């Protein structure tokens, strides 16, 4: 029985422009730029050099640690450069630039598993790891780490198909066009975790998607259940989805595994299915290209590393009065300042806005209405969090008001009648805390090194 989570808002879904448009395959560009960081954790180390020939699915980035995931070539061709390039998260990132030879040569090491049913959960997880699969919903947490850390602890596996952010429709189209792959991936997850069923959570405004998956479930007699959910943002948040489906509440600072749950995005599930049945790692991504600045909005599947300018070109270009580009949804996405950034594993949408949609206020003043408190799904107090950050009191923001628990969903910013940049302020607050931690760690390491050198002398 679907339940309710705390807070939440009801923004206009703005999905009509693309929710009835099938996923189109974008021709591979002449050049792809593949950043070595498309996951939470340490960036990958490039293992190719300029002049090397590469093939589709060939590993080009070696994981930088346990919480990392390998990166593979999305086209065949020649490595043109290995250098820092503009990055969607800001600044630059070491990237591998591949000049496409348009031969579409697949790496000879890629092959399907002969008998997937004979594999142990550990062997299946190893396939997931080698395929470089990460959370496709935007979080980009390495999937093999999530599975490995949950084995023996998880009794509730959830597939996140809520797709609650406005504009984005890639998951919805995937339900309609690729339900067999979704259910196939869900069955593999059921085997890995040893559970008797997997639950797919879908907002009830995607009824045709629910019907498409239920049809496949019935045909395959799969251990999968589709749970319709009431439309409310941020229904797709991990903790909110768990609470809505199971009634369990992940504690502050805790993980889903702490309450016996594991959550995977619907396209992550498809990547698992493809990796096991075909051997192909993550080399493509479905992206919704929409917004008032797009001439012809579409859902597009393109190679990883495709410049976002190519997506806009495929949609008829941008309107002349376009003033903002956002990678991701309008609630949680990041504004982009450079059209040279490229599509990554977690890129679910590219939005462009034009005209008079901007509602920026130069000198916003809080009116103490308390609406932000009522909509916060984590039950924080954004009005006071913002006040203390503006005073420069990061300690109170972090320790008393629990600012680091903010999931940056943007519900408070959306509902604020004064148009305070609440979510932006909280992101900056988190950055200050992280910078302080890194500085303290560096200082401690320097002091330890100096002490060791003094002792040796």
Summarize the structure.
32% of the residues lie in helices and 19% in strands. It has 457 residues and is of the alpha/beta class.
Strand elements, count: 17
- Spatial order of the strands in the main sheet? 1-14-13-17-15-16
The termini sit apart by: 69 Å
Number of alpha- plus pi-helical segments: 13
Please estimate the helix content. Answer: 25-40%
* pLDDT < 50 runs, ≥5 residues: none
SS content category:
alpha/beta
Rg, rounded, reads 22 Å
Order of helices and strands: EEEEEEEEHHEHHEHEHEHEEHEEEHHHHH
Instruction: Give the amount of beta strand, in percent.
Output: 15-25%
Main sheet: strands, sense, barrel: 6 strands, mixed
Mean pLDDT over the residues: 94
Label the overall shape.
globular
Task: List strands and helices in order, with pairings.
Blueprint: E1 23-25, E2 31-35, E3 45-46, E4 53-54, E5 59-62, E6 71-72, E7 77-86, E8 92-100, H1 121-130, H2 143-150, E9 156-160, H3 170-177, H4 179-193, E10 198-203, H5 207-220, E11 224-229, H6 238-246, E12 261-265, H7 266-277, E13 284-290, E14 298-303, H8 308-314, E15 322-327, E16 334-336, E17 349-354, H9 371-375, H10 382-390, H11 394-400, H12 411-415, H13 422-456
Parallel strand pairs: 1-14, 9-10, 9-12, 10-11, 13-17
Antiparallel strand pairs: 2-8, 3-5, 4-7, 5-6, 7-8, 13-14, 15-16, 15-17
Helix pairs in contact: 1-2, 1-4, 3-5, 4-5, 4-7, 10-13
């Amino acid at each position: 029985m679907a339940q309710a989570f705390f807070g939440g808002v009801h923004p206009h879904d703005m999905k009509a422009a693309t929710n009835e448009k099938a996923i189109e395959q974008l021709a591979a560009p002449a050049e792809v730029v593949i950043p070595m960081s498309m996951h939470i954790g340490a960036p990958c180390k490039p293992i190719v050099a300029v002049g090397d020939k590469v093939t589709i699915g060939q590993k080009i980035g070696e994981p930088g640690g346990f919480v990392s995931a390998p990166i593979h070539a999305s086209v065949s061709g020649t490595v043109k450069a290995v250098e820092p390039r503009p990055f969607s998260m800001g600044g630059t990132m070491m990237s591998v630039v591949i000049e496409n030879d348009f031969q579409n040569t697949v790496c000879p090491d890629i092959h399907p598993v002969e008998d997937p049913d004979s594999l142990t959960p550990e062997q299946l997880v190893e396939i997931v790891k080698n395929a470089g699969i990460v959370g496709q919903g935007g979080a980009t947490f390495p999937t093999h780490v999530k599975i490995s850390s949950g084995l023996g602890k998880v009794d509730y596996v959830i597939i996140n198909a809520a797709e609650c952010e406005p504009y984005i429709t890639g998951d919805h189209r995937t339900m309609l066009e690729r339900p067999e792959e979704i259910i196939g991936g869900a069955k593999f997850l059921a085997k890995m975790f040893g559970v008797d069923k997997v639950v797919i959570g879908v907002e009830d405004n995607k009824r045709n998607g629910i019907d498409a998956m239920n049809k496949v479930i019935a045909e395959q007699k799969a251990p999968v259940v589709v749970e319709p959910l009431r439309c409310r943002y941020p229904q797709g948040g991990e903790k909110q989805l768990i609470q809505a489906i199971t009634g369990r509440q992940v504690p502050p600072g805790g993980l889903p595994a702490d309450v016996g749950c594991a959550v995977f995005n619907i396209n992550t599930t498809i990547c698992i299915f493809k990796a096991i049945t075909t051997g192909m790692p993550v080399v493509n991504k479905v992206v919704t290209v929409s917004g008032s600045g797009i001439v012809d909005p579409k859902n597009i599947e393109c190679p990883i590393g495709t410049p976002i300018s190519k997506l806009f070109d495929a949609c008829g270009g941008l309107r002349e009065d376009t003033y903002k580009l956002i990678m991701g949804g309008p609630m949680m996405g990041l504004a982009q300042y450079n059209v040279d950034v490229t599509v990554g594993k977690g890129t679910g949408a590219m939005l462009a806005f034009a005209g008079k949609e901007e509602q920026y206020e130069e000198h916003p003043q809080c009116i103490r209405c308390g609406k932000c408190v009522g909509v916060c799904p984590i039950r924080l107090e954004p009005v006071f969090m913002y006040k203390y950050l503006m005073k420069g009191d990061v300690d109170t923001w972090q320790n008393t008001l629990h600012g680091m628990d903010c999931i940056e969903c943007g519900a408070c910013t959306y509902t604020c009648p004064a148009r305070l940049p609440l979510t932006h302020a909280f992101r900056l607050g988190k950055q200050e805390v992280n910078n302080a931690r890194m500085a303290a760690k560096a200082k401690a390491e320097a002091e330890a090194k100096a002490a060791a050198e003094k002792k040796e002398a």
